[in-house]
Amino acid sequence: MTGIYKGDCSASVTRTVLGVFVPCKPGVTILTIPRMCLTSLFCLTFQGPVLAGVIADAGAVVDAALATGDFDAWYDANQALLDTAWYAAGLNFDSLIIVKAPAQGFGGYEARGNNVFAPGEEINIYAEPKGYGFGDLGDGKYEIAFAIDMKVMTPDGSEVANMPDFAELKLASFGQPHEFVANVTITLTGAPAGDYALELTFRDLHGGQSADFTMRVSIQ
Q1: H/E stretch holding 56
Q2: Using CA atoms, how far apart are residues 123 and 183, in angstroms rounded to an integer?
Q3: pLDDT tens digit sequence for 102-139
Q4: Inter-residue long-range contacts of 54-57, CB under 8 Å, 24+ positions, other chains counted
Q5: Once rounded to an integer, what is the mean pLDDT over residues 68-89?
Q6: Would you call 132 exposed, middle or buried from its count of C-beta atoms within 10 A (0-12, 13-18, 19+)?
Q7: What percentage of the chain's residues is helix, strand, coil (to nearest 5)?
Q8: Which residues lie across from 218 on neighbouring strands?
Q9: Which of 12, 51, 54, 99 lies at a CB distance of 3.0 to 4.6 Å from 39, suitable for a disulfide?
Q10: Euclidean distance between the first and final Cα of the chain, in Å?
């Protein structure tokens, strides 16, 4: 099941994916409800390690264009430099935080401060993917798209639930926004008290890459 948003990238929207019951062991059922809110801003950033030689070469082109006083040439060269650094880093995550509630926008979150939850309580995760690719939709419009897989594990490595294609995120935008936030809300209903590891894998549908992270929570 998927929640998909297509629209102007300066807007934000929340989609709730209907929960699916996943049997995990006799007498225990987990209900997962992901809720995703996507917000993007027109701001370009560097993230992660980069290839110094390639970056230096792109930077030299920027300097050369600046020396000529040709703004258009400088702008194009600067954009190429930013893109080179962005893709050299590969898909990664800048911020991964358990928050009190879904963020209202990029960086607009309040950290929860602990990972302990009551049975059935919402688990809100704030994630900032970086280094993703863009799909060209034509007419100056681009798309960011992720498929997300999720596993729920116990401390001893036992798999409680395995949900390939747990959700799909798509955002269409004019331009290529480099700030993007995904709010994921997960509810474990019927799970016994104990510790759990939530493993989420983001598959970049346009960049042909993937990255995963694990958030550890305790149900008490």
Answers
A1: helix 52-68
A2: 10
A3: 998 888 999 999 999 999 999 999 999 999 999 999 99
A4: 54/84, 54/88, 55/81, 55/84, 55/85, 55/88
A5: 83
A6: buried
A7: 15, 50, 35
A8: 116, 195
A9: 12
A10: 29
For position 125, what pLDDT does the model report? 95
29-57: string of b/e by CB count within 10 Å (b at 16+)? ebebbbbbbbbbeeebeebeebeeeeeee
> pTM of the prediction?
0.70
Cβ contact 198:217 at 8 Å:
yes
Which two tokens mark 95? Answer: 């911020």
What is the spatial distance between Cα 143 and Cα 174, in angstroms, rounded to a whole number? 9
> Who wins on pLDDT, 21 or 70?
70
Strand partners, 126: 97, 183
Of 146, 207, 179, 176, residue with least CA distance to 4: 146
CA dihedral 16→18→19→22, nearest 10 degrees, is -130
CA–CA separation, 29 vs 23, rounded Å?
5
Largest distance between two CA atoms of the chain? 73
**Residue 165: its pLDDT value, please?**
92
